[in-house]
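Input structure tokens:
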């Protein structure tokens, strides 16, 4: 259960940092953070499914 949440937080942080590096405005930071958070959460979900099936 923790992997998707960790991916969400980590993805949001990476997205915000990337937008800040490109000198984006607040809306840019929020959009990049949201998109990267969704990507991170999906990757975390797939990792959770893989780990759960490997342990079964």
């Amino acid at each position: 259960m923790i992997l998707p949440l960790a991916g969400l937080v980590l993805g949001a942080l990476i997205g915000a940092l990337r937008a800040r590096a490109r000198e984006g405005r607040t809306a840019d930071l929020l959009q990049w953070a949201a998109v990267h958070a969704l990507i991170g959460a999906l990757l975390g979900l797939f990792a959770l499914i893989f780990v759960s099936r490997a342990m079964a």
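The mean pLDDT is 97. The radius of gyration is 13 Å.
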